Amino acid sequence: MATTRKKAAAEAWGSLLQVHAALVPELDRRLREATGLPLGWYDVLLELSAARDSRLTMSQLGERAVLSRTRVSRVVDELTRADLVRREANPEDARSAYAVITPAGLARFREAAPVYVAGIDQEFAGELTVAELSALASTLRRVLLRFDLAHAQQ
């Protein structure tokens, strides 16, 4: 029984990685062609647009964005040079700063969002029913919750 579970777990994990590896470049391509935004930029703009006051500390952004923490810092630098994000000092902690989406950044995000959502619908969800998508989302949230709980205790 344990071998069957381990095999099923390895197959599920492998499938998740393969889907990710296949779809991320395609979503990036679609965004770049339609809007000029790379997927990494979109990810940061998405998180900032959803945040309270449209700002997050760099640490918070690193926790929420799909990118690595070091990559988040580089992307914020790139977005700052493009005037889509600005950095603000954190008055409560001089060692940290906020990344804040600018009006131009919000406009670019809103332009890119339909392209991103359409790509997800076509490339990821296209052959799945609403019930299958809901079950998949619920299952992945359970995995993440278990991970978060286990690592919060460390």
Written description of the protein model:
There is one protein chain. The protein has 154 residues and is mainly α. The chain has six helices and three strands. The chain has a three-stranded antiparallel sheet with strand order 1-3-2. Strand 2 and strand 3 form a beta hairpin. Helix 2 (39-50) crosses helix 5. It is globular. The mean pLDDT is 92.
Overall shape: it is: globular
Give, in order, the helices and strands: HHEHHEEHH
Major sheet attributes: 3 strands, antiparallel
The radius of gyration computed from the alpha-carbon positions, rounded to a whole number of angstroms, is 18 Å
Helix content: over 70%
Supply the number of helical segments: 6
Count all strands and give the number: 3
Please mark out the parts with pLDDT under 50 across 5 or more consecutive residues, or reply none.
none
Strand order of the largest sheet: 1-3-2
Q: Quote the average pLDDT.
A: 92
Strand residues, percent: 5-15%
> Gap between N and C termini, in Å?
30 Å
Structural class: mainly alpha
Index terms:
three-stranded antiparallel beta sheet, 154 residues, 6 helices
Blueprint (SSEs and pairs):
Blueprint: H1 2-35, H2 39-50, E1 55-57, H3 58-64, H4 69-81, E2 85-89, E3 97-101, H5 103-124, H6 130-152
